[in-house]
Amino acid sequence: MKVIIKPSKISGTITAPASKSSMQRACAAALIRKGESLIHNPGISNDDLAAISIIKNLGATTEYSNEILIIKSNGIQPISNEINCGESGLSIRMFTPIAALSKHPIIINGEGSLLSRPMNFLDEIFPKLSVDILSNNGKLPLQITGPLQPNNILVDGSLSSQFLTGLLMSFAACEFKNDVTINVQDLKSKPYIDLTLAVMQSFGLNLPTNNNYESFTFHHSALFQNKNSTIHYTVEGDWSGAAFLLVAGAIAGNIIVTGLDVFSTQADKAILKALMDCGCHISIQSEQIEIGSSKLKPFHFDATDCPDLFPPLVALAAYCNGTTAIEGVNRLVHKESNRGLTLQKEFGKLGVEIILQDDLMLVKGGAEVTGEIVHSNYDHRVAMACAVAALGASGKTTIQGADAVNKSYPNFYQHLKAIGVSIKP
Q1: List 47, 48, 305, 308, catalytic entry
Q2: pTM of the model as a whole
Q3: Taking a C-beta distance cutoff of 8 angstroms, is the pair 43, 59 a contact?
Q4: Is 308 in the active site?
Q5: What is the pLDDT of residues 59-112, one digit of tens each?
Q6: Can you list the domains of the chain with their CATH numbers?
């Protein structure tokens, strides 16, 4: 699929999409918890649908009523010997330890770029938790046989916090004779662990003691809370997707974005700092964020804990008069594409020079952004970044592989149209 975007001035009010980070964690917590859980504002992205499919294959039932997702679970009771995580990195890392709670052999599979992502972590950790694992040289497909037995372990948190999320969720479903501690070395993306713990608390799961993110201790005396009651959980707005809307406002606004929790634990809320630093017009209120274009200046931003912000930050930096520096490039290698190189290549086509120096990305902004033919490289965030950058370009921009946005934000182009962007298929 391709879309053609013409330079556009935008205005109006738009509601942020549902957070897939929140939605997927809620699905996992509802499966573990047992009983009935009502998920309000459920997500509809491909990653969200993958999570729903996974919990159904692991024994939960789901149905929709008045736009509420109702999940009923009796715990991990697989009805299939395989789960497919689509292209969701969070799903593969979070649900694999959860699936390992079953004593039945289960094949873990995926699609697209997920097939090439490294899963060596599981090869190293699972034997220490009494889980047998066969992998394809550290990649998918995997075959696991549990049941997982919690144990004191050391986890490398430098690659992704998502592995730790899966372990925290799976340990929370277990009973302990003694206290058990997950020790963590060099943890990245701490805000995502905050989100995991917040979701676990909302569902009444056993919460570990957080020892300054260096270790997490589960206590043998802990009990499930609200075990027999119906849980209501509202999926919050997605700061990752909304970051593109906010940057669009800074480039071509004025717009109002609603549906975001300014007190959220989502890591990508940090987009607000970059927007304030670059000098755009911005008013942050509890119910909405008003944002508009202005003369933009370059900024320095550390995206180590929020690597998904690189694409919208690059689009923003393209319109800042000078060189913007963004730290954390090493976090981009194993995304849907090698995202640092992909951004460099595709924005280069638009006339924006990007220099990669070790863990640093330098974006030279302020020159004319040219309308050209670019490709998403099947990376949803690259597609959205190119679309937003196109708003102030000198001519029309054609995005090939544009349907990659379905992974996280299937309504993205419709939302852009709603605020005045000229888009043609």
Answers
A1: 308
A2: 0.93
A3: no
A4: yes
A5: 999 999 999 999 999 999 999 999 999 999 999 999 999 999 999 999 999 999
A6: 2-17+237-424 (3.65.10.10), 20-216 (3.65.10.10)
